[in-house]
Amino acid sequence: MTALSTLPPETAEALHATREKVCALHAELTRWNLVTWTSGNISERVPGTDLIVIKPSGVTYEDLTPASMVVCDLHGAPIEDGCSPSSDTDAHAYVYRHMPEVGAVVHTHSTYATAWAARGEAVPCAITAMADEFGDDIPVGPFALIGGDDIGRGIVATLTGHRSPAVLMAQHGVFTIGKDAKSAVKAAVMCEDVARTVHLARQHGPVHRLAQEHIDALYDRYQNVYGQRKGTDS
C-alpha cells in the first residue's frame, strides 16, 4: 500500500478536500430517503490523480467521517490501512477506468426507482423534468452479482453513448454518474423523483413517452440555457 504521507502537498490537499466532500454528500442520501441503514454509497475521483474516495463498507451514515472514507486506486485496491471499502468498489472502479469523463458514482436502493429495477423496466421519459435531467428513458442494465466488477461492466455497457446519468441495474438498484459527486447525487435524487411520479401516473392509466423532438429540445434548453451562466448580463 502507498503511504498517504508520501503524496505531494497539492495531491494531499486535493485528497483531503475530496474526503470531506464525499463524506458530507452521504448526508444527502439519507436526507432524500434514498438509502436505508448502511446501504448505498458515493465515490469520487481525486482530481489530478488515479485515486478514488469511497464510503467504507457497513458503516452507518451517522458514523461516517472524512477520515473513514477509503482511498483506493482505479482497480479498487485500498492504498492505506484502515476501513474496508464498500462492497461495490470494484464496480465503481470499473466505471472510472472505462469512462474517463466520469468524476463520481453514486449507488442507492431508492424505493420507487428500485421497484422499476425489480421489474426490469425502464422508466419512460414521460414528463418534462425527466427530459431536462435525463434526456431519455432511464435504462435498465443487466442483472449482476455484488462483489466483483460485473455490475460496473453492466453500467458501462448501458450508459456508454446514452444521455441518462442513471441506470437501473436489474433486480438491484440505482447507479448514477456525474462530473463530480454533487452532480451524481443530484441524478440519484432526480431518478427517484421521476420514478415515483411516473409510477403514480400509471396507477390512473397509460403513460405516454414525450415526442423525441420535445425531449431533445427540453434537454438542450436545460443543459445549455437554464440557470445562471458565467459571462451573461442578465
TrEMBL record:
Where does the record place the Class II aldolase/adducin N-terminal domain?
A: 20-199
Provide the GO MF annotations for this entry: aldehyde-lyase activity; L-ribulose-phosphate 4-epimerase activity; metal ion binding
Q: Which cofactor does it need?
A: Zn(2+)
- Signal sequence extent: none
The UniProt entry, under Pfam families, shows: Aldolase_II
Judged by the first EC level, this protein's enzyme class is isomerase
Q: What is its EC number?
A: 5.1.3.4
Instruction: State any GO BP term from the record.
Output: pentose catabolic process
Report the domain of life of the source organism.
Answer: Bacteria
Reaction(s) this enzyme catalyzes, per UniProt: L-ribulose 5-phosphate = D-xylulose 5-phosphate
Q: Which InterPro entries match?
A: Aldolase_class_II_sugar_metab, Aldolase_II/adducin_N, Aldolase_II/adducin_N_sf
Q: Does the keyword Zinc apply?
A: yes
Q: Which SMART domains match?
A: Aldolase_II (SM01007)
What Gene3D superfamilies is this protein classified in? Class II aldolase/adducin N-terminal domain
A GO CC term assigned to this protein in UniProt: cytosol
Task: Supply the alphabetized keyword list.
Answer: Metal-binding, Zinc
Q: Which family is this protein grouped under? A: Belongs to the aldolase class II family. AraD/FucA subfamily.
Protein name, as recorded? L-ribulose-5-phosphate 4-epimerase
| Species the sequence originates in | Streptomonospora alba
